[in-house]
From TrEMBL:
GO terms for cellular component: cytosol. Residues 2-159 form the DHFR domain. This is Dihydrofolate reductase. GO terms for biological process: dihydrofolate metabolic process; folic acid metabolic process; one-carbon metabolic process; tetrahydrofolate biosynthetic process. It comes from Mesocricetibacter intestinalis. Pathway: Cofactor biosynthesis; tetrahydrofolate biosynthesis; 5,6,7,8-tetrahydrofolate from 7,8-dihydrofolate: step 1/1. InterPro entries: DHFR (IPR012259), DHFR-like_dom_sf (IPR024072), DHFR_CS (IPR017925), DHFR_dom (IPR001796).
Length: 160
């Protein structure tokens, strides 16, 4: 079992503002879908509430200290119990939010990053990435277009 983090962030590490992503990038949503479909996704309660529904074709696990009920999700109160629930899966995707990224980045084996080539205001940030600990496995540049207002880079990093 491998723990992977998937996140979109700006050059100043913003990942959210007011419990939302402060951008709309269909190319990033397609990248997210392609890399998480068929895999278990773990998220915090606020992240789940900002999405508003379980993600299709994925086991959805919501972490919350308080019992949380919603159709088609598994509620777990700890990462240990969440990982136990999906221990037979090869790759587990942690999809947010900021507190979970901060806590579990040191344990992650792989990072799926969308680096949005701009700086935006926000209140939730991805922690600094020590580049000496990671090697680039995949990188693709995507230029801005009519539907995607910012240039971005898609990367997959694996721990050295």
């Amino acid at each position: 079992m491998h723990l992977s983090l998937i996140v979109a962030m700006t050059e100043n590490h913003v990942i959210g503002k007011d419990n939302k992503m402060p951008w709309h990038l269909p190319a990033d949503l397609a990248w997210f879908r392609r890399n998480t479909t068929g895999k278990p996704v773990i998220m915090g309660r606020k992240t789940f509430e900002s999405i508003g529904h379980p993600l299709p074709k994925r086991t959805n696990i919501v972490l919350s200290r308080h019992p949380y009920r919603h159709d088609n999700i598994l509620w777990k109160e700890s990462m240990a119990s969440a990982l136990e629930a999906v221990k037979n899966d090869e790759e587990i995707m942690l999809i947010g939010g900021g507190e979970l990224f901060q806590q579990y980045l040191p344990q992650a084996d792989k990072l799926y990053l969308t680096l949005i080539q701009t700086e935006l205001e926000g209140d939730t940030f991805f922690p600094p990435i020590n580049e000496e600990e990671w090697q680039t496995e995949f990188e693709e540049f995507r230029a801005a277009d009519e539907q995607n207002p910012y240039d971005c880079r898609f990367l997959i990093l694996t721990r050295r």
